[in-house]
Amino acid sequence: MDDRPILDGHRMSGGDSARLYLDGHEYLNFGGCNYLALSQRPELRHAAQNALDRGCAFSQYLVRAYGGSYEHFDAVEREAALFWGTESAVYLPSGFHIGFAAMAALEPLCDVIVLDEMAHWCMSDAAALSGKPVRKFAHCDPDALAAELDALDADARPLVATDGAFATTGELPPLNRYMPLIEDRDGQLLVDESHSAGVVGDTGRGAAQHFGIEGRVHVGATLSKGLCGQGAVYTGSATAIERSRTAHALRGSNPGSPISAAVSATALRLVRENPDLCGALRKKAQYLRIALRRQDLEIADTPASIVAFSRGSFGEMRALQQHLFDAGIYVLHSNYIAAGPSGTIRLTVFADHSTADLDRFVEEVGQFFAATDPSGRQAMA
Ligand SMILES: Cc1ncc(COP(=O)(O)O)c(C=O)c1O
Predict the structure, then answer these.
(1) Which of 190, 224, 306 to probe ligand 1 with, by most ligand atoms within 8 A of CB?
(2) What per-residue string of b and e applies to 195-227 under the rule 16 or more CB within 10 Å gives b?
């Protein structure tokens, strides 16, 4: 079986949410992460154009540790602090820097790092390089976390790190159950809200908002998913943010593009001023979940805009992806973190999907399973 990505050799152009263009042909798209479909919004296009027109450089050619900073970096940091209600924030060139920024910020407050076993690599790689002992607990399991914390030395203060919504499945960890366990140990909870920012929580502040534990949690998020920009932010107190700026990964790398910072600042403001965007998207994703469950598919509940399922073997999942592709629909057959041996059909519901788009997808999935399972009943994976 050919297990190369289905997009191998195709030229992508234009389209970055509900529509994707491959070799000039339009596809109905369920892959990628521009959840709120903000990238075509005039406010964001204008922000980039305006920065260019005002002579903005493509990069800051001097690391920020030497003191100078472009206005666009200050703007995105101000907007991130406003969005998450923190004293301060730091702009990072990519979401992969979140773990490094956070672990430097929280260094004096913890003795051991305790990771969800499926935490994004930006956490596990930074933890491995932190110089602290690292332990893992079973995915999304508060009992496993409790057992792991109980096994620590009595005075060891844990830093527990997890994604706010997991990239492949969209599931949320039960942060409300983690929090008391961690606070009992004088520990800290770090949440990577990359896939939840802009979608989850009443005003899109992510899983910590969803579970009502904001203000007790340390938050970082990429800007390249729901918020459609590029780069990331880590938020916190002024002192913590100053410490994060000393991390080698920040001190020793370019701060990112000021044009991306200008676009990301605008996206954060747009969502802060229009929180209804988040609720509307969650509703669309729920519509798709319910429709797919009517096809006897097992779909996890989550307020994220990710809808995921796996049924049958890797080959069957790949055949479904090919069937959809031949019908002009692109979906991801993911082999990413937590995808499992068969891989996962990982769907993004975008804010610009119409109900007809979602119905068309469900109908194609139904046709595939009807053809591959003549009994009309499909066995669950
Ligand atoms: C949970 C999570 N954190 C961080 C990142 C890295 O973000 P970026 O693409 O901005 O480097 C990703 C990227 O896929 C992610 O899924």
Answers:
(1) 224
(2) bbbbbbbebbbbbbbbbebbeebbbbbbbbbbb
